[in-house]
Amino acid sequence: MFGLPGLLCTVSLQCGSTPTKQHVDIYGPVGLRSFIRMSLEVSHSQLVFPYTVHELLPSEDQCPAEEFRDFSRYTRDCCSLSSDEQIIAADPTDGTYCLLENEQFTVKAFKLYHRIPSFGFVIDEKDRPGKLDVNKLRELGVPPGPLYGKLKLGSAVTLENGQTISPCDVVGDPVPGRKVCILGDCSGVTASGAARLCQDADLLVHEATLDDSQMDKAKEHGHSTPKMAADFANLCSAKRLVLNHFSQRYKPPGLMSEGDEDVTILKTQAENVLIGHSVILAEDFLTINIPLQKLS
Amino acid sequence: MFGLPGLLCTVSLQCGSTPTKQHVDIYGPVGLRSFIRMSLEVSHSQLVFPYTVHELLPSEDQCPAEEFRDFSRYTRDCCSLSSDEQIIAADPTDGTYCLLENEQFTVKAFKLYHRIPSFGFVIDEKDRPGKLDVNKLRELGVPPGPLYGKLKLGSAVTLENGQTISPCDVVGDPVPGRKVCILGDCSGVTASGAARLCQDADLLVHEATLDDSQMDKAKEHGHSTPKMAADFANLCSAKRLVLNHFSQRYKPPGLMSEGDEDVTILKTQAENVLIGHSVILAEDFLTINIPLQKLS
Fold first, then answer.
1. Range of the structural domain that residue B47 is part of
2. Which of A294, B10, B127, B227 has CB atoms 3.0–4.6 Å from B174's, for a disulfide?
3. Is residue B296 part of a domain?
4. Nearest-CA residue of chain B relative to A39?
5. Is the pTM of this model over 0.90?
6. In this complex, is the C-beta atom of B118 within 8 Å of any C-beta atom belonging to chain A?
7. Does ipTM surpass 0.85 in this model?
């Protein structure tokens, strides 16, 4: 959160000095909007793009009772909401939030349990239309051009000879969209709908602050261990598990000093539990490619 | 400024979990206190040490009239000042601020001109007592022990035989304290007392955003060029000049792409103006040693 105002300023600088109409939407817990506005105001920062902060309303079951704070006063005190700004409440039946849906993506969030309210996010890419069978189109006498596009997007077309061609005749299976789930600090999920949202994730990022021998301590501080992360990954049938947010005591084998522990123990412990997949330990600037599924 | 809440949290984490009485004092422009309080509150951060924010009151001559903002309402609205918190006004005669004075250091600040009010800071180490002339002390019959300390700290002592020994008889010249001056973004100083405060600085850190061929553009945006930095360094008889805050267009020779310029031009331009000293280009994690002056 602390890095957000600086990130916005850097992005703005890189856009050049001309105001742009490209809009930036920011999603985070209640209180974030006031924090961003005040940070930019006190630092006299001017962004070349408009931005909107959408705030997620947490609930008291997301943290110990004594840690819960009501930040909605910030919204009342400091900010008049513009027309597109909103406080998003969770679906009361399953603790999930619908953040965004467009032609390409659905983005949802869900409640986590931590020392303070925390959230998980799911970016779910929509399926892409399958490949056109050009040979079959030629056979059926469909002329190349706009009719191809219509068929690919799922509409039937009628040829000049009166014949109707249905997409299922000439379009292959859709290419499945990819799903990435990123959880914040947590010792578990509060939302009953979390595992459903994360089902079949291509990539699941879950914290593992301490190793399994410290599970009680981890839970006490609202954190997880590799087994806890892998259990959730199994529940979701996630295809890849990335662990992050390691305690400073875990170091790569080459960088260990006295009192440090080997970070690869976290990988081993998660792999002992995770069914059928390997585990990746996150590091700064790590890039993971998630290729589109190739269909025959 | 954006990095400050994160820095405080990191320092706190490294202190362990036990509250400490070590106090942290933070100095910055009006508005900083509310920013820090809100950042720590909204992020539920708890520091193990107490901290105090001392705010410097800027004036309208530090920036273009249309950019000046009165942030004192933040102080009125959100923060009740604790007994040791203060808003520090500049000395009206010379635009300098007295921030701190203890046995080791004097820390002062002064007004700069920029797109928004900006400040320079001077850390001035006090002189250390000179070396005791042990041979002379023996000759004069001063017994080793507490009398040595008294003399070193500048008090005369009387021996059992009635003879009075004055510090100037047995203590060498004091070791001069070191002076470091760090200026924020600026196209010049507003404070008439700035050059006096920075006089004979061992190290002066001054920005040079653009090279001298872009001086008009630099000034227009409230920034400096190498010549401007070196002129101020000459005015102060600074012993070393460090340039920082280069525009992204300047890159080290090995890292230049199309459209980039060689950053060493900034060094050359400053050295063409700076009298008798070399210029250092700042880079991340650069460490500069300022040795204590060795006296004979």
1. 1-89
2. B127
3. no
4. B35
5. no
6. no
7. no
